[in-house]
Amino acid sequence: MAKTLIFLGPPGAGKGTQAQRLVEEKGFVQLSTGDILREAVKNRTELGKKAKEYMDAGKLVPDDLIIAIIEEKLKDLEGKDIILDGFPRTIPQAEALDKMLPSIGRSLDKVILFDIEDKEVIRRLSGRRVDPKTGKVYHVEFNPPPEGVEVIQRDDDKEEVIKKRLEVYHQQTAPLVEYYKKKNKLFVVNASKSPEEVYKEILSVL
Ligand code: AP5
Fold this sequence. Notes:
Elements: E1 4-8, H1 15-26, E2 29-32, H2 33-42, H3 46-56, H4 63-75, E3 82-85, H5 91-103, E4 110-115, H6 118-127, E5 128-130, E6 137-139, H7 159-173, H8 175-182, E7 186-190, H9 195-205
Parallel strand pairs: 1-3, 1-4, 2-3, 4-7
Antiparallel strand pairs: 5-6
Helix pairs in contact: 2-3, 4-5, 6-7
Bound molecules: BIS(adenosine)-5'-pentaphosphate.
BIS(adenosine)-5'-pentaphosphate is lined by residues 9, 11-17, 33-34, 37, 54-55, 58-61, 66, 86-87, 89, 93, 124, 127-128, 137-139, 142-143, 156, 165, 194-195, 198.
């Protein structure tokens, strides 16, 4: 059966960075709800218009919108190994996923928890830059973009929004740690290490 993984962890823990590498080197498909929403905002679709206000404020987009997006995307990924990056983020989203997976012939393999302290997250997010053409993620200090690559800062990487996102993570998403621990699906990696070391830890878990 095709693999189904969840990447769980605070904003800026490195979920997207590691997912991109697994896509490039191991053939996974990354399903990032954040990327899907940002694309919708950019293209000013109905979804984008609804989501923008929440995202700019660092709040979560309502569960029903997110669950519908994931349901739609999963239908097209039959037989593919997938990483759910940034979903689920609330208990109702996790319960919806539990119902959804068997109905499309999948089951959850592992949840990888990216363990990292808030102060490190703040350093990472305030220095993050993105290449809008390729979606590649860089960091002004830890992984500077190559010369000639023009990068931008995400709207929600401003200091006051970062603080709000962390607060929302601790309130609404952190309860998922217990949820998946009880199901024996949770595997913890030390996300404060270098990207290479984190990648190796993930491979050893997989
Ligand atoms: P989303 O895009 O999912 O944001 P996030 O979870 O906050 O995660 P990030 O993308 O900020 O961080 P990351 O862990 O991927 O870190 P990265 O690899 O970039 O969501 C955005 C918004 O969309 C939410 O606020 C919400 O409004 C909405 N949304 C999305 N999903 C939703 C859902 N399910 N329900 C409701 N609303 C939803 O790394 C960060 C930086 O650190 C980079 O600069 C990187 O180069 C650097 N870095 C990475 N790894 C390392 C390392 N090991 N050492 C040093 N630097 C590193």
